Amino acid sequence: MTDDQQALLAARPDLVAMARWVAPGARVLDLGCGDGALLRYLWQAKQAPGYGVEIDAAHVVECVRNDVNVLQMNLEDGLATFGDRSFDCVILSETLQAIHHTEQLMREMLRVGREAIVSFPNFGHWQARLQVTLGRMPVSQELPYQWYDTPNVHLCTLEDFEDFCRRLGFRVLERLVLHAGRSVTLMPNLLGSVAVYRLGQGNPA
Known about the structure:
This protein is of the alpha/beta class. The chain has helices at about 5-10, 15-20, 35-45, 55-65, 100-110, 125-135, 160-170, 190, and strands spanning about 30, 50-55, 70, 85-95, 115-120, 170-180, 180-185, 195-200.
């Protein structure tokens, strides 16, 4: 593993799960891909070809420098550019909370991809609950913005997200809950600050 790859995974532990869940050679679409570091890592580590979608022009330039295929698009406009089952896996990494048309995008992800991988900050973490109880909007490593400058519009807890998936008819294939880079299995909705889900179509029988 290169120094750049190690730095990426150290800074974003949720990406460790995402990378593990992507099969070698899988076709990947990364929504809100930033500078393309995850896609570059997946190509180097898994030979998984991918495309990124990013609206920020500076990030698009960084993707090009990272030799990542990228389209400059607004996710709020949907994924009509892509046909059904164009990808094996569609990734939405810590972007869900900033999407206005959440249901539309989630449905599109599992139209375009056979599976979806989603990560987001858990608003049910005890530190967030405590700050709200004390009369303040939460600020943390996972939620670093003040209330007046945050891009986040739809914060949720693990239980909220799983209810949402059931309503849409999505199946939770795998779940990993993290705090400070470590897996949380005891009371994850209270003690976990970041959640990572692998989703498929259809509820289990």
